[in-house]
Amino acid sequence: MRRLPPQPGERIDRSAPLSFTFDGDAIEAFAGDTIASALLASGRSVLSRSFKYHRPRGELCGCGQCASSLVTVDGAPGVRACGRPVTAGMVVEHQNAWPSLRFDAMRATDKLGGVGGTFLQVGFYYKTFIRPRRMWPVYERVLRHAAGLGKLPNRQEQRAWRTEYRRRHCDVLVIGGGIAGLTAAVHAAQLGADVVLCDDDVEPGGVQLAEGGHERMRELAARARTAGVEILSGASALGYFDGLVPVWQGDTLHQVRARRHVAATGAIEQPLVFPDNDLPGVMLAGGARRLAALYALAPGASAVVASVDERGVEAALTLHAAGVRVAAVADLRRDAADCPAAGRLAEAGIPLHAETTVVRAEGRRGVERAVLARVDRTGLALPDSAQQLECDLLAVSGGAVPASSLLLQAGGRSRYDVATGRFLPGELPEGVHAAGAVAGHDELGAAELSGELAGIEAALALGFGGEAVRRELAERRARLEARPLTPCAAPPAHARDGRRGGKAFVDLDEDVTVKDVEQAVAEGYDSIELSKRYTTATMGPSQGRFSQLPAVRALAAATGMPVGEIGLTTARPPWTTVALGVLAGRPFEPAKRSSIHARHRALGATVKWAGDWRRAYDYGDAAAEALAVQTTVGLIDVSTLGKLIVRGPDAGELLDRLYPNTMSSIKPGRIRYGVLLSDAGRITDDGTVCRLDDETFYVTTTSSGAAAVEQWFSWWLADWDLDAHLTDVTQGVSALNLAGPEARALLGRLTELDLSNEAFPYLDAQHTTVAGIPCLLLRIGFVGEVGYEIHCASAHGERLWDALAAEGARPFGLEPQRILRLQKQHILVGQDTDSESTPYGAALSWIVKLEKPQQFIGRWALEHAAQRTAATALVGFTVPSGRVPTEGAVVLHDGKPAGQVTSARRSPKLNQAIGMAWVPAAQAVDDARIHISDVGSTFEARVTTKPFYDPEGAVLRS
Amino acid sequence: MSLDFLTLGSDAGVVAKSPLAAGTAAAGATYAVRDGWEVATRFAEPRVEALACRERVGWADVSHLRKLELQGTPEQLVAAKPDDGLWLQVTPERALLIDSAGPRESAAHVLDVTSQLGALRIAGPLARELFARFCALDLRPGSTPPGAFRPGSVARTPGYLLCEAPDRYLVLFGAAYGAYVWEVVSDAGLHLGGRPVGVDALVAQEAASHA
Amino acid sequence: MSFLLTCPNCGVREVTDFGYGGESSKRPAERPASLRELSAYNYFRRNVAGVQREWWVHRSGCRAWFLAERDTTTNAVLWTVLPADAPRADGASS
Fold this sequence. Notes:
By secondary structure, chain B is of the alpha+beta class. Chain B is 26% helix and 31% strand. Chain C is mainly β. The interface between A and B is large, with 56 and 59 residues.
């Protein structure tokens, strides 16, 4: 395409040339060009290859909305060339063509389909490439090569661009910056509302920018800014989520939370359907106008215009004025010759053919001829009415659909207005307004008036403006309602000349033809939603923007149903295709880290996720770390334990109601183990309860259970009238477990407390200072050795760790702890238990005190459970062969699954394969033989109901 | 037995460390010991830090601020409220008391939660823009004026936010999230042209805003 | 799902600030007479398509539990209150 002489309102800056590359070739452009306008100016007409048939595709919409101009920019795929402004040095590459855009070998798929074969026929993914199944990997490779929309970077470091979220609260969000949107924004802001306006073009103004109103629109945008409107340009609203609208602008995803919304999203011009309606050179009339007006491009040397309403005549006049020869206008309206602009058309010497449409495009690489004809109701050319016209631009306009997706997502409905032959939004949901073409007001004056109305209504609803404004509103509403909507002619679903050959596309994104829709109906997919899923029409990257009406019309023709009854498909987000990286935002995951985390890192710990914590799994040698605990002394950071303080006169009563055992009888300074139950008697968490004084208890929970336990406690507390208070101090307290035969001696060097077994026995708690740090010491033994859980304020955690490590305590991680606790058959809730486990099954019958008076949580279910034998029980086992089964391996009984392995490790101390498993109750006795089926083999194991190590707890209590 | 182990020691040899220490150290902080805490006093020239707070945004680790939690009946809480410090009413039965010598004598339960909560003070004309990158709270002056206290999600973790003055906020969050929150705030803040600052820069800024 | 909820203590927040506690139902004062009734209490929910009374907790904020009435078909929240201020539920088991 050649550049035109300077156009009024053109967007390019001819004084600022720049260059970028396309598939390695240097392309000259001006600042303000889009990638597409620069490529077109350089003489290229093919911008992409189509999704399925690899047909060459040129410019269609000229506004960054269709899928015909998808390119890869600086490694990011899926960029619309006709929407993205060029920058110097930008590296642009084509997509979906191999080996090159000009010669695409995959084009063969088009020819295969063309001779009546079944390759890539409608619904092909349900019918072909399925058998034989073993061939799937081959098929997949072929299909991935053939189809698709570019290549994604697959590693974080390949992602060169930064994306982030930005939250924006406002009173009114206006979506769309055309005449209606800008007017609405100005009026709402002038009444005092905090207004944000988003628009997907590089500047606000909408279609008026390319249709003679650029000065007025730029002035209106300036007024909006003066009134305080925040204008987001190049910013697409992606969807409507209960009032939250994500707006994508470059690297930022604005999450706009407005109290009122004005949809001024305009209408979308629709293509016409005829054989080879996708040839490069077939363009929407509005797109052709944009190229000429904004980028000073002659969209063709010689044009034919085909339309169903006033848009065609207007486009022809504009193209003529810009210097493009217009060979003819085919207007389907019967009374086209009576339209207001017909006289100007005659003056310009442009022939106008009423009741005529285009029935075929012809040409090899692009449009060379258009065939015009009068057609019957089905779209077939009437005999002898066809005429061929030479042209290289075929500007088409098949009516418009309101861009109502966001309105529909917000809960609005669309309706078909039979009188004017178009879809319109019906009743709007609360808090949502519609203005301009989306509401049917596509005439300039009406659009402006509807914008005023929407802006004022939104502001009034929020309490801005007064009685005078309200009165004015009624007057405006009356004026708007007095304006009739202009009718438009309905084009045939499939205009054609009756000759063979040529695909007539309903959906260019997905390469869906009229034949495909007919075939789908013949196979029974005869409603719009079924047809959509089967043919994939309207499911492509442009979200059905340019296939809504063609798809509805094709289905109406194939089924004989009226368009209004067929309706539109459900509107779903995203309304604009968006890069996943934008939705991902910044790559940060909320992670909890203990105050000692830096020390673990410095020691070379393997750090892994454990719930929402980052934890030291081991320091390189789990078995050696476990052995060290049993031979000398080990130190583990257990700061992740949940820790709750329960205070108040009723604290004991609260705990008695929540635990199956009695906590109110614990003496100050003593500790008791407890499990928490659901009211169905199932184990949900476990931990220790330590009584600090009469009214104060210190409760620990599992690492992942802290938040849930606090919520559980506070939920019941909200219902019970008890004088008790909770505080979750999990993150404020560091806890270190010092354990092993030398633990007492080591700790003795750092505290003045008498640590002798008599003065500080098992399950006692003492307050003291360790290395000068105030600490609470709990003598408990999760790992089975003499041990002290040392709790201190987390701001001192690192210092406490350093002091203990300096005395020779060997750090051990989570994995060695798991080995050690398994030797003791100490259960891990959630690992050894599941949502069906009761204390009776989990070998914790001793903890249930049915004799206590409280109707504790889970009591009633346990009373029932106590009357019968549980079907399965949790036991320990050893494997004589030494094999360590996979956790989750199946326990067989009479050859049938009867339980499962929950934990299994090799014990370095016992030099044995040990584990825990749920087994049939009859086998829950010492030395019973069970069979474990694991990864294809079955082997024997022996039940051990007592701990594997120190079964009587003599070591622990020593 | 008592809850003394939650209170930071008065032993001169034991210095408390902020949950954000890894982040401030990596950002080049200079520290001083104040009131038993290792405090990040500066990251750059005072002039540079002041400029950041005046023209962009600065953030300072103030985790050392003493924080008490009070629970009790509304009447008990009213009776406990002292004249100094920041009183943050979380629920009718729960309040936080920041940077105070201590509550008045009352039947309310008091707990030292200084170690439990990390704290950042964020100030500058871009402070709201910074929060907008990781926080859904409506911080427009009309919605969150100076003095307003807003418990809510900050950087996808439970938080407490206080608007201390125009363009100046105090945010509290779980101490274990310290490294994470520092990372999120720094990432967004540096991108906005802001910088980490020492506690003294904010004192200077406060003085300037009162002047 | 992005609707707003009003915490009785903290005010309006995104729904993601909150934890959902399920339909409100009262724990019987005494053990249900039969296993069937106990199981109904433990496992059966009304699961209405329409307005229901339910528990929420402001887990990212004040951490308080409160009651709400919400239309499960539209996510329109009719009201939220602290448990002590809850109006009597009519028709609900109480």
